[in-house]
User: Fold these one by one.
Assistant:
Number 1:
Amino acid sequence: MEKRTDSANIWKIIAIAALCLLAVVSVLYAKAAGGKGASPAPAAEAAGEAATETAAAETPAEATGTEEPAETVKAEDILTLWSEDAEARQELTAYMEAVTDEGSADYIPEEDRIAVFDLDGTLFCETDPNYFDYMLLVHRVLEDPDYVDKASDFEKETAQKIVEQNETGASFTGLEVDHGKCIASSFAGMTLKEFNDYVQEFKKTAMPGYEGMARGEGWYEPMLEIVEYLQANDFTVYVVSGTDRLIVRGIVYDSPLDIPMRQVIGSDETIIARDQGDTEGLQYVYDDDDELILGGDFLIKNLKMNKVSVIAQEIGTQPVLSFGNSTGDSSMAEYVTSNNPYKSLAFMLCCDDTERENGSQEKADKMYALCEEFDWVPISMKDDWTTIYGDGVTRK
């Protein structure tokens, strides 16, 4: 029994010794391996760095998670219908270079690049022989066989004033508000789609003062280029018009002006649910059988100071660029350029082209004087543009 115990103890000692020896050998081997691998490490690291640099040079910015600074889209790539020496073109392109350069003190973040445009006389033919929305009312009340017999005396009187204005140049105090009321009442009960369809049909009628152009085609092509130029440089563009908002949407619909309807602002009328009747909106609940219709009541004419108010209400950010053509846009221009935290400019179109457009040198001279007084940038329709409506369109 004692011999067996002694034998077991001996084997235990042998096993422990073997484990210790193995541990020592392992440590020595590790040190030896570490020593042999130490010298080539710098070369390996250098090779790895070189490979990383090469890969970075060949890998697009998107793959590395970095963003390349946005480059300013050049004016010459878009503003092809402008004279190269036009003051307005030069002012705008210099402005764009400054506000899109991240290293510039005038840099404007993309979310604050807001531009506001008037419609009539700024983007679109102003009068032929009168505003688009004025002529729409004349058509509805005096010419539309489905409505002539339904028109109210007030609607007819207002439409006749517009006709007289077209024929004699007479002016009527309060006509812009009376017109707004009549647009609201004469189309009351139409769905939004029905009203838009009506506007689309009217857009197809011939522009009486021009050859080769329908009413809906009266876009100033050089100004469409301005919109495109701004959008290419990450500006958000709004139309802020005195024309009824729903009419402006109809004009913009299926047109060369590429902006969403939510960026169209104009004069307003009520919109209600078909089954709402005379019930106040606070007391009525829209249901799944309802649809929206025109309510028949005029709300506000979006001109002058009202443009500033609606910009603050609906956009919520002070724009940095303004484009207009009349004193109805003066408040908007001054709001944009007054106490603005960013570099800002206001441009005004001057209707000095009496050959290609229904211009007025007298009105143009007044606007040039205002531009000088208020430091707005004038745009000469005569001298700054190589075309107005494009090829194939001539004034009668």
Number 2:
Amino acid sequence: MKSKRILFFTSLFILLFISSCSDTNQDYFHMIDTGSPFDFHTIETFDGSIYATGGNVWTKSYLTSSADSKQWLVDSLTNKSVFDLYATDTMLYGVGNDGYIFSGQPELKLTRTKHWGLLRAFTAAKIGFVAVGGKDFNKGWIYKVNEELKIDTTYIFENEILDVSCNQEGICVACGYGIIIQSNDNGYSWKRIDETGDYYNSITINAKNEFYIVGYNGSILTSVDNGTTWEKLKNGHSPLSDNKPFRTIKFNNNVGVIAGDNGLLWYSEDHGQNWKDMSIDIELDLFDFVFYQNILIAASEKGILYKVSL
């Protein structure tokens, strides 16, 4: 009889523990249906509010916004898709199809560039701005953009360019389909770095001024010398790795997060040197995210956002 009681209480404890873990797993994230019919490609914060957009490449995009992450407003933005939002202290910017560049405080107004190329990312340099884009894997471009949002210089590549980051020293690094490119003069000239091997989706800079890149095959690269040389923290082509697609990487102080397909979220507390899996149990892909107060808000498909506790 005693052994049966022990077995019963042991089984009960295991069931309660599993139930508790399951509840916790569901409690740390929840879905927000904003009512937008389109996929979200990008999300950003500006002046205390949150802005997300995306759209259909050729026909429409909406700008979805919230002042508190609880109530969301959906407005029509433009007749093409927008792929990146970028904020400074004084201005919100966006770029998209047909060379569109938007700017506002926060009402976004369109500036048409002299080129019609699809733009994937936009960032401020120490002088002016840099916009990058491309299509079909084998066509890419980098635009050096002045303060009036006019293109000063255009660079063409045989690789699609997807993202770019610049530090306070005037060093810019761009990445894309099997390519990493470096500029030492705020984006006025570029040279290719001898590093290939992945469809590099996203680049960012941590609080230690180290560059980080993630790729669609699951690579994580870091550079401590302004993008001249790179260390593979995770090899996306290793047969021993669980190589799920990475879409975006960002840092907030010492905390880093990577987002990707099927709810993938990786988390680092040491500026990106070590990572742990905190993925959420969904089938949708996470294309971008922002740190907002003590949570993370991730942009996904079909007008869906996810709040995730950190």
Number 3:
Amino acid sequence: MENLEFIKNVSIFAELEEKEIIKLVEIIQEVDFKQGEAIFKQGDTGDALYVIKKGTVEIVKNGMSVCNLEPGAFFGEMALVESKPRNADITANEDISLLKISKKDFNFFIRSNPTILLKIVSFMTERARVLARTDSKSDGDNSDAEEKKEANIITFFSAKGGVGKSLIISNMASLMAEMLHEQGKKILLWDMDFEFGCVDILLNIKHSATIYEFVESNLEDWNFEDLEPFLYNSDTMDNLSVFISPDSPEKSEVVNMQHVRNLLFCFKQHFDYIFIDLPSSFLDTTITALDNSDHIIFTLTKEIPTIRNSIRCLKLMKSLRYQDGTVKLLINDFGSTLNIETEKIEQKLENKVIATMADEKELVIKAVTKGTLVHKIDSSSSMVRTMKNIILKVSTDEDKEIIKASGQVQDEGSGFMDKLKNMFS
């Protein structure tokens, strides 16, 4: 327990109680490196967090010295939550002693101590926010520029894959573009599931340029005109653009938080609405998008594993300060086998459900098989009416009035067919 007092003063563990730190110290290894020895190289797979106990290290990124770290500092923390390549070289300036927590030991440890993970992720999230603000200033951005934000950002997030959020967001973005076409409102649909995104499949898009190609182009001082060739623009809806994910999982590794932050800043100046489909994990890129969101549509199904994961996920989001009315629950009834009352789900998740998507299996299968959208096949379906109501909820006040005046939105469940369905359900 000789490292107990030292660990107490390391910032990433500052929110832990003493009994939690005592448990954590049990999985810490002390490792030594000689002067000039590399702790790891840029591109190596991250497998551990390190805390400097004695000596200093140098951080070198892309061949350029970034800074030196002293005792008490830590590095490599992202390895605890994701196995992505290291983004810098770390080398010992002198003979040093480090405290190491391996990803393998940490994963085993948090199974019996899940609250520790929540506290550490909360710290990492706040650190990512601070770094983003710092980078913003160093890039020459200023507060006046940030205030020029115009786009309304709607992100779709879930605690578990397979809840249908990609299908819903793809339809909603297209539907909103259609509803506000006459007003010239520009809509962007951004697939930010960089590993396994499927928006291009759902929209039947064949477009070779993705965010991967944009990052790899290494453009300097780029603007929106430079970015346009990497966006897919609909032939039938000229106010809808789509930014698709890379065509293979390994290409996701080139996209980082800074890329996302810069792209968001640019997009916010050129679009009226940005729909973002996020992966079901708290990556730094995901957190950057969530931090910029006006509305977070948390999507789930009425399945026990999904509800359980959603409770955990929303608890974490609350600790990350996303529960100020920004988070809105959407239940997708597609394929649900359990008849759980919405009120019970709201009680368990401590949040209000803004809408429930009807289980229209035949319509969804028909749309996916044909490579088209639900609202293109049946614009009067219950699913489409629900989407329109959600669109109304996330629209600006000005656009709400336009949509209402056009008569495009009908109160959910008020249609004749819905009444018939309710009578016989």
Number 4:
Amino acid sequence: MFDNVKIPVKMLLMVIVPIIGILIFAAQDISVKLTTLHSLQTTRILTAFAIKSGSLIHQLQKERGLTTGFISSKGDKFRTELSKQRVDTDSQIRELKFYSSSNKNNLELVRERLDAAGSLLEKLAMIRADVDSMKLEPKDSLAYYTRTISSYLDVVAQITIMSMNPELTREAMAYHAFLSVKEQAGLERATLSGVFATNRFDNKTYEDYVGIAAAQATFLDVFNKFADTYHQKAYLEKMNAPFYQQVEEMRSIALARRLTGDFGIRPENWFTTSTAMINAMKEMEDMLATHMAEKSDRLASAARLSLALSVFTAACSSAVTLLFGFIVMIGINAPLKTMAIVLKDMADGKKDLTRRLDIDRKDEVGEVCRWFNRLMDSLESLLPQGEGGRRPDEGATVPHKSSSAPSP
């Protein structure tokens, strides 16, 4: 099949086959790593969006608590605080919308839940107007803010299950669980703000409060299951503060006097103290978010490095294989080509038998060269003196061995 193919072409074919194999395996490896990198980059963007969603949730939680206290007190309390809080909430909304519009393609994975949350958020201006005009009951405003917050928690929940990396998924689960713990704490703040503002704890509100407390304990248990030891200890340290004991005392008073009222607790004091606790939880949330974002960045950087190394390795392997094949081809082809030239000259009638091949090699080509040189020596010794040397026009002759014994 290859009898009529020249040696350089044959050698080139021998080199091309392994290079093609290298490129095929490299392409498969690079394809997998490109997919991993794209997934991690998408996860990184989704993680950042989850963190920004958590910041918006925090602002909505504060506004919910202030709104409940404002309505429950018939507008006598929390007016100034509520106005300032709305500014902070609007700022966070703008930031989240800007990030969302800048990363539309990557957020398509959560588009359905994100649109549902956005449609609820669009009603915020109308809700605020009804709150200012006292057209809403505390339970109605509480229900609106809670639904809106829950819709963004749903977005975060969906993001937590989309990562391909198990470590990142575990951290995202812990983050979502902790957001849910803080949400229940925010609901508790809003609920007891209304209770202390009206100085009564009706049965419906009490039932809701018991459910809030149970949910908070459940989500805290989930957080402890997914969070690492470091973050578990960090949470306990943050809760080991005076405000936590004060919150526990106010809770106990509310439950002990729920039938009689007359709690003796100003709603502003409760709100301030519970907000201090929630702010500490927000610090913990930021710690979890920062750690998760840093891990996402590290994984993406590692994936980029791995991809670059795969491309570099494939390129170097192909280049080295090609270079080695070229060197081997020259080593084989050069002496054979010289032999062909000498034999052609002899066939054409030229008698220059002084040409020799380089035999400074130990392989089969070197062996052929040695036997070729032996052949040339033998042929040169058969010719009469002067006929086997250089041509007369070159002005030199090459001595050769005599076939007769030397005379005494």
